[in-house]
Amino acid sequence: MVATICVLIAASLGLDVPASADSRDGSTIPFGKEPITPVPRAGPLDADKVRLGELLFHDVRLSRGDVLACASCHRLAEGGDDNRARAPGVSGELLDFNAPTVFNAALSFRLNWRGNFRTLEAQIEAVLLDPDLMNTTWEELLAKLRADQAYRKAFSAAYGSDPAPAHVLDALATFERSLLTPNARFDRYLRGEGDALGAEEEHGYELFKTYGCIACHQGVNVGGNLFQKFGIFYDPFSPRGAVTEADLGRLAVTGNEADRHVFRVPSLRNVAVTAPYFHDGRAASLEEAVEDMGRSQLGRSLTEQEIDLIATFLRTLTGEYQGRPLAPDSDRPP
To answer: Domain segments of the chain: what residues?
Structure first.
């Protein structure tokens, strides 16, 4: 019954995929009627702005005291997050939320766990100015950038002027729009490569659909495009006891009681390399996260075999960055 309801919800959201898409060799291959679409390659972006944004993204001078860079919590050599339950802010105190991956963030309809930002630029500015995050001011940040001749030259090439707030935000946002991870094995499967997935991975995908996971995790980002309550059939906060402000979800933003424990549904793109999971980093492994979601969101006690099959499918969602499949730091060669 639960699966039927969730599948009907998915259908009501209009989840049919476009009839076709361009394959890697330029031919047109039908996707069929799947509720997930492949990650596209990044569209045409201004090369000067991308390069400048990349420099800014890795520069600790964007924070007060030159302590943190964007890349401190969003490691591009790994999964675009930091592999910690909660990252420390500029003061060293742990932040309220698990750091979401920056990869494919440009494809989501809202940003952050509470979905309180609609654009990359707004979210970036909030991070820069938040006392718990980068804790800088525009006056302080621009003074650093204008004192650096290399930055002045780069801003002049990209924008025809010295560094300005709008240019800093645009450069960072342009770089983040380049952080797409196409060519996951599942994307190749959608594009017509039937042997891109094994039998167990296909079985896991079928379970993912028929059990109702697809109702919230669909589209190009396999999530990231709607809000949902965490704990539909089971209260995931009861075992821990005290509820934190972060646990309140969108209630803390809207003040609407209906938004209690409601979060932006996270993307499952590259989920196998972005542990730990959930807004508070509570689940250390992908299997634990699948089990928790089955109980809390579907009202199902998944068997060990079902958990393994769904996790096996989710591992096929790992895409490529700069031509290489993403991998946890522990899996990378020395």
So the answer is: 2-40+182-331, 47-177
- Summarize pLDDT for 228-265 with one digit per residue, the tens: 999 999 999 988 878 999 999 999 999 999 999 999 99
Cα separation, 334 vs 317, in Å, equals 25
Q: How far apart are CA 68 and CA 83, in angstroms?
A: 16
CA distance 282 to 95: 14
**Domain 2-40+182-331 carries which CATH code?**
1.10.760.10
What are the DSSP calls for 126-179, one per residue? HHHH-TTTT---HHHHHHHHHT-HHHHHHHHHHHSSS--HHHHHHHHHHHHHT-
- 191-199: list long-range contacts, CB under 8 Å, 24+ apart: 191/21, 191/23, 191/24, 191/29, 191/31, 191/38, 192/23, 192/29, 192/30, 196/316, 197/313, 197/316
If one counts every other C-beta atom within 10 angstroms of the C-beta of residue 147, the result is: 10
pTM: 0.88
In this structure, what token pair is assigned to residue 98? 């698990």
| CB 2 within 8 Å of CB 301 | no
What are the φ/ψ torsions at residue 28 (nearest 5 degrees)? -105, 120
Residue 268 tokens read as 């499952």
For the structural domain made of 47-177, what CATH number should be given?
A: 1.10.760.10
